[in-house]
Amino acid sequence: MAHCHNSGSGINTLPQPGVQRIAVLGMPNVGKSTLFNRITGAGAFVGNWPGVTVDLFKAEVEVNGQKVELVDLPGIYDLEGYSEDERVVQQFFATCPVNLVLVILNAAQIDRQIRLPLQVKALGMPAVVILNMADEAKHFGIKIDEHKLAQKLGMPVVLVSAKYGHGYTQALRQISQQLGQQQPPISPAELKQQIQAHRQILESQIQETLANTVEMPSRLLKNLTEKLDAVLLHPVFGLPLFFLSIYLMFEFVWVVGLPLQDVADAITAWLQEVAIVPLTANLPELWRGFLVDGIYGGLATVASFVPLVVTFFFMMAIVEDSGYFSRAAYMMDALMYHFGLDGRSFVLLIMGFGCNIPAVMGTRVMRSRALRLLTILIIPFALCSARLTVFVFIIDALFDRAWGPLVLFSLYLFSFVVALLTGLLMKGQFQNQEPFVIELPPYRFPTIKQVLLRGWGELKHFLQRATGFITAGVAGVWLLSNLPHNTANSMIFIPLLIGMVTGWNAVKAFLQRAGGWIAVSVLVIWLLNNLPGGQDTSYATRIGEFFSPILKVAGIPQELTIALLFGFIAKEILVGSLASIYHLPDPNAVQATLAQTITPIQAYSFMLFCLLYTPCLATVATIKSESKSIKFTLLTLAYGLGLAWVVSTLFYQGAKLFGLS
User: Fold this and answer.
1) Residue 68 in contact with residue 61, Cβ under 8 Å?
2) 62: which DSSP letter?
3) What is the spatial distance between Cα 648 and Cα 30, in angstroms, rounded to a whole number?
4) Do 66 and 348 touch, CB atoms closer than 8 A?
5) Residue 218's pLDDT band (cuts 50, 70, 90)
6) How far is Cα 560 from Cα 582, in angstroms, rounded to an integer?
7) What is residue 488's DSSP assignment?
8) Of all helices (H) and strands (E), which one includes residue 117?
C-alpha cells in the first residue's frame, strides 16, 4: 500500500504492517465522536454543534483481536461539497488508503441523512452504516428495518445508541466481519477520480432506498425538545434566558470552585513546607531560589486553579452537549448578521471559552473566506480558560466574594460586545454572502461518563500546558527577575535549565530548529544589555521600567506590566510569574500583596487589557496556519494590542474622572 501523501490532516503514514485503517464519517450532531471515544477511549473532543471535529483524531485499538487504526473525520453534510471540512475529507480519501468506512447517521433523521451512505456506495468504498440514537428514533415513532435497508445499500446496517452503549457489540461484530474479508483498500487515485466526477445522488434514489425500509409517522410526537424550544427560543425571552443560564453557570463555578481552590492552596503550601523546602535546603542559593521560588512557586499558584478549571469545564460539557449552544447560535444569527457575522461565529466565540485554538480551527466549516477571517479576528477576544485562571485569581484578591460572579460575568459580556463591535468595524473589509444553515439537535442530558471524560480531557490538556509552556515561562520569569545587569550572556544556559525541568525533548526541539531561534536569542540578549535603567536592577525590573510609561496611563503598575509581557507566551504564566516578580517566597502571599498595592479599578483595567491584548503564541501560530496569511496574522496582533491599550486607558481615566480610582 502507498503512504498518505501530505494530506494536511496530520496523518501522514500508514499504520504498522497488519494494522487496518477505519475512517469514521458522518454529519455533525450524529454522535460520531461519542462512538469514536467509546471504541478508542482516546477522548476526542465531543460537542453538540456543527463543525466541532475540526481536525483528524486517530487512535489504534483492537477490535475482536484485530489491530485497527480509527480516524475520526470532520463532520460534513456532503461528501462532494466545497466547505473546508468537506475538502479535508475529500483530500483524506484521495491520499490515504482506507480498509473500511463507518458511516454514522442519526436514526431519528435518517430521511435527511441517507444521502451520505449512498455517496459512499457510489464511490465503491467498503462500509458499515451505524444508525445512532436508535432510542430517540423509537421514541419518535420511527420504525427502521435495518435488514432491508442493508440489502438496498449493499452494506451492513446496525442500530445503536452510542450514548448508552446499546447495539455496541453488534456494531463491533459487523466491523470485525467486514475487516476479516481481507479486501484490499481502494486506490486513492481511483477514489480521487470518482470524487472529481461528481455523480450526484438523485432524489429518486433516496426515496427508493427509504421505501419499505423506513416508516416515518405522519407527525412526530410532541416531545420535550419542542416544549423547551417554545420557551428557550422565544423571540423576546430567549436571549435573556440564555445569558441568565450562563451567569448561573458562573455562579455555580464560583460557589463550588473557590472552596476547592482554598483546599488546593493548603495542599501546595503543606507540600512546600514538609517536602520541597527540606529537600532543597542544602542546595546553593541560586538553585534553591530557582527550584523553590521560581518553578515550584509558579506551578503551585497555577495548580491551585485546577479544581476551578475542572468545575468550569464540567458545567460547559453539560451546556454544550445538551444542544443549547446550537439554539444560541440560531437565536443570535439575526443579530450577528448586522455585524458581518452569523450564528456559527457566535458558536465558535463560545467555543473559545474553553480554548481559542480549536475555535479558530473550527472556522474551517465556513465556505466564505471573508467570514472565516472575520470570525478568526474576533475569536481571540473570547475569555479562554487560561484568562479565566488569571481573572479568578485577581477577582478573589481584590473584590468581595459576593461580587465575584458578577465581575467575571461582566468580563464575558465585555468580550461579546468587543467582538460584535469589531465585526461592525471590519465587515466592510470582510464581506460575507454565505447563507447560515444549522441543524438543531434534540435536547440531551449528557451521561456522567461523558461529563467526566470531557472534564478529564480538559484537565489533562491544562496540566500538559503547565509542564510545558508554564514551566518554561515561570523559569524565564524567575531568571529575568533575579539576574542583574550584564549577565544576559549567561542566558544561553536557559535551554539547559528548562530541559532539566521539562524533559530533554524541549532541548532537542530547540536545537533542531536552532537557526531562527539563535538569531532571536542574540537580538534579545542585545536588547537586554542595552535597556535603560539602573545598573544593579534585574532585567525584569528594567523591562518593566521601559514599558511602564505606556501602561501607567491605564493604571497598570510596573509589576503587572512585566507579567503582561510574559503573558505573550501563555496567559497561564501571568499568575505563575507574580510570585517571582514580587519576590515572594510564599506563593500564597501574592493575593495579599496585590490587595495592598493596587485598587479594584486598577485590577479591572488590568483584566480588560489581559482580555483583549495579543493571544498566546499557540493561538497566534494557529491563526497563521488557518488564515495562511502573515499579513492577516500581524493585523490580528496589532489590532488586539492597540484595542487593549485604548479600552483599558479609557476605562481607567474615566474612573479617575468620576473619582472612582
Assistant:
1) yes
2) E
3) 44
4) no
5) low
6) 10
7) G
8) helix 115-122
C-alpha distance from residue 89 to each of 56, 72, 488, 635 (Å): 9, 10, 49, 30
Phi–psi pair at 519, nearest 5 degrees: -60, -45
Sole residue written with cell 443570535: 332
284-317 tens-digit pLDDT:
777 777 777 667 766 776 676 677 767 777 777 7
CA distance linking residue 474 with residue 469, whole number of Å: 8
Which pLDDT belongs to residue 199? 66
CB 97 within 8 A of CB 49: no
Burial class (CB in 10 A: 0-12, 13-18, 19+), 20: buried
Q: Are 603 and 394 in contact (CB under 8 A)?
A: yes
pTM score of the predicted model: 0.63
Q: Where are the beta strands (DSSP E) in 74-207?
A: 100-106, 127-132, 143-144, 157-159
Q: What is the dihedral of CA 640, 646, 648, 652, to 10 degrees?
A: 180
Size (the chain), residues: 661
Q: Say what the pLDDT of residue 21 is.
A: 86
Cell of 635: 493585523
Nearest to 90 by CA among 73, 72, 70: 73
Residue with cell 466547505: 83
Contact of 69 with 1, CB cutoff 8 Å: no
Q: How far apart are CA 404 and CA 294, in angstroms?
A: 29
Give the tens place of pLDDT for each residue, 98-144: 888 999 998 888 888 898 999 888 888 889 999 988 887 887 788 88
Amino acid sitting at position 493: F
3-class secondary-structure state, position 105: strand
CA distance 438 to 280: 58
Residue for grid cell 530557582? 290
Alpha-carbon distance of 467 to 643, in angstroms, equals 31
Q: Please list, in sequence order, all residues whose beta carbon lies within 8 angstroms of the beta carbon of residue 160, skipping any fewer than 6 positions away.
A: 35, 130, 131, 132, 134, 166, 167, 168, 170, 171
> CA dist 520 to 324, 523, 614, Å?
46, 5, 19
Per-residue pLDDT tens over the stretch 410-423: 998 899 899 999 99
Residue 278: count of CB within 10 angstroms of its CB: 10
